[in-house]
Design a protein that fits this description.
Layout (H helix, E strand, L loop, with lengths): L16 H22 L8 H4 L1 E9 L10 H17 L6 E5 L3 E7 L4 H8 L5 E11 L41 H16 L28 H12 L5 H6 L10 E6 L5 E6 L4 E2 L3 E9 L4 E8 L1 H14 L9 E5 L2 E4 L10 E8 L1 H13 L5 E10 L2 H29 L1 H28 L5 H30 L4 H33 L3 H31 L3 H4 L9 H4 L5 H15 L1
Parallel strand pairs: 5-11
Antiparallel strand pairs: 1-3, 1-13, 2-3, 4-6, 4-7, 4-10, 5-6, 8-9, 9-12, 10-11
Length: 590
């Protein structure tokens, strides 16, 4: 009958506690070694403990959309800003709305703090527009008679579409009005030759071909005349003028815009209606072009964007310079204007005077999409860690007092068992500290004041698990069992209780993490992490240690200071002996 049970471990048997304990210690040493090897021997600190920058952004209504500032767009903006900042690896960036039109961005002090600050309010409206004409970036003005080139046009860098005579430009005394006349003729000619896009407005259509010479008389089309004057007067060297150049324009409008060429000189453009938008970009990366030795931004289009890109590049490849160029316009400025000689596929690149950081920053912005609103920075303040440091010190003092009270209670009530509980708490503390330190560079976890509170609360949860197990052992001893079988028989009952209790705590932490934002998530994350570690410590450390110590004379003999003295616990006589006595007395009484 005993054959079927051969080789099988009975429920409540001690198993191999030494092996389990060794595995736990190896894991703890490995985590500690990994912490020192990574160089991050302390957890990352949040803005309330480490200091940083707090930025207030105010939303502005989009031209033509007076009701654009609404909850949906604000929530979308918060999500995009948060993804941008986290994409840079900034730890614990906090982004949240304040009121109906403000967004507060808290960026902890760190290596990427400046990058994050540069990106939080960037609208990142991206459009691909065909180039109609391009000229030197300065305003049209009479050139000095001693100059060899018109004023405002960089020497040696004539723009073939600016209306100037080309490279054989006169080096003598040019007509003082030549620059203005040439630019005006370029505008009118470009608008005449422009093929209206399907979505172009009436104002974008070319003027009648029978209108008088634009160099001699004003254009008959008021829209063309206004655009001509705007282009002629635009000074791209003036930051204010660049900002206002196409302010309020829609994707369907023909606009003027500024940009720099490969030599860093300003140029101004007339651009047709947008053919593609940033929403057509599926992914963007900043990469180093090995052949040219320069940083570029590569973009992959969505399926719909690929079709649009193929269509527009096919049309542009049949045009003459500069109308075979398409401008990549970001937030109203031309960042690149490459020429097209053939139909292109589902990817494109932005080249220019990029550094590694600027290329990766632009790719990061494009990858997460454009903000639905335009934001203006209202304030940017530096947050010091002094107040947070004082609060942290007060919190640590409170935690130390609470831990001391727990230890006093354990020693007074459980005596020798208190040593096992204290060592287990120490093991849990080491595991928590090392994992928090590793999670900083790993997932950007940062320790803030609520997270410290979560760790302090976890002390009680962990101590509660020890108490459950110790009380189950005492219950078995009260029933008349010796220590070793009591330790093993108590474990299945205590295990169920511990698992149910920790599951409830972890579930509460998970729900709190999902439904809250900001610093409260730090509390929930730490509480959930320490609850999981409680299960690991109790199963793989406390239980094996208790099994091993149950074999020692101090605990097995029920020493008065072991906390397991049968007399103090009011243990009953052995169960088997009482049954034998009752079995012998029944026949005599009969």
């Amino acid at each position: 009958m005993a054959a079927p049970n051969k080789g099988r471990r009975q429920a409540g048997s001690p198993g191999r506690p030494g092996r389990t304990l060794a595995l736990f210690l190896i894991a703890m040493v490995a985590l500690t070694g990994g912490m020192f090897w990574s160089g991050h021997v302390t957890p990352r600190l949040g803005i309330d403990l480490a200091g940083g920058t707090s930025i207030t952004l105010q939303a502005k209504n989009t031209p033509g959309q007076p009701n654009a500032i609404n909850k949906t767009n604000m929530d979308t903006a918060v999500s995009i800003i948060e993804r941008r900042v986290n994409g840079l690896g900034v730890s614990e960036a906090e982004v949240q709305t304040q009121g109906s039109s403000n967004i507060i961005v808290n960026i902890p002090k760190g290596t990427n703090e400046k990058q994050a600050r540069d990106q939080v309010g960037t609208t990142a409206q991206l459009y691909f527009r065909p180039v109609l004409t391009v000229a030197a970036g300065g305003p049209a003005a009479p050139a000095p008679s001693t100059s060899g080139s018109p004023s405002g046009s960089p020497s040696g860098s004539p723009s073939p579409s600016a209306g100037n005579p080309s490279s054989d430009e006169s080096a003598g005394n040019p007509d003082p009005s030549a620059s203005s006349t040439a630019q005006g003729r370029a505008v009118t000619d470009a608008l005449k030759d422009e093929t209206p896009s399907p979505g172009a407005s009436d104002s974008d259509k070319p003027a009648s071909t029978e209108s008088p010479d634009p160099a001699a008389t004003p254009s008959a089309d008021p829209a063309t005349a206004a655009l001509e004057k705007k282009f002629t007067d635009l000074d791209c060297t003036d930051k204010t003028a660049r900002t206002k150049a196409n302010q309020g324009a829609t994707p369907k409008d023909t606009i003027v815009a500024c940009g720099t060429n490969s030599g860093g000189e300003w140029e101004k453009y007339i651009l047709g209606p947008a053919e593609l938008e940033g929403t057509d970009v599926d992914d963007a990366k900043g990469v180093l072009d090995q052949q040219r030795g320069m940083w570029i931004v590569t973009m992959d289009f969505s399926s719909g964007g690929t079709k649009k890109f193929q269509s527009i590049t096919g049309k542009l490849s049949q045009q003459q310079p500069p109308m075979n160029q398409f401008a990549i316009v970001l937030d109203g400025n031309v960042v690149s204007a490459p020429s097209v000689s053939q139909t292109l596929g589902g990817s494109a690149e932005i080249s220019g005077s990029f550094t590694q950081q600027s290329a990766q920053d632009l790719a990061n912005i494009l990858s997460y999409g454009a903000l639905p609103l335009t934001f203006q920075e209202q304030s940017a303040t530096t947050v010091t860690a002094a107040l947070g440091g004082e609060q942290l010190q007060a919190g640590l003092i409170a935690g130390a007092i609470g831990l001391a009270l727990v230890v006093i209670y354990l020693v007074a009530y459980y005596r020798g068992l208190a040593g096992i509980a204290i060592v287990s708490l120490g093991a849990s503390g080491i595991m928590t500290y090392t994992i928090m330190s590793l999670l900083g560079p790993g997932i950007g976890f940062a320790l803030n004041l609520p997270a410290v509170c979560g760790a302090i609360v976890a002390i009680g949860i962990t101590a509660d698990s020890f108490i459950v197990y110790f009380e189950r052992i005492r219950d078995e001893i009260r029933e008349g069992r010796t220590l070793r079988p009591a330790v093993e028989r108590a474990w299945p009952r205590a295990r169920r209780t511990i698992l149910v209790s920790d599951f409830v705590s972890f579930l509460a932490a998970a729900v709190l993490f999902l439904v809250t934002v900001g610093k409260v998530q730090g509390f929930a994350f730490t509480l959930g992490l320490t609850t999981l570690l409680d299960v690991v410590v109790v199963f793989f450390f406390t239980k094996p240690v208790m099994t091993i110590l149950a074999r020692t004379k101090f605990f097995a003999s029920g020493h008065a200071w072991s906390g397991l003295d049968p007399k103090r616990l009011g243990a009953k006589p052995p169960l088997r002996r009482s049954r034998r006595v009752s079995a012998h007395t029944d026949p005599k009484e009969a």
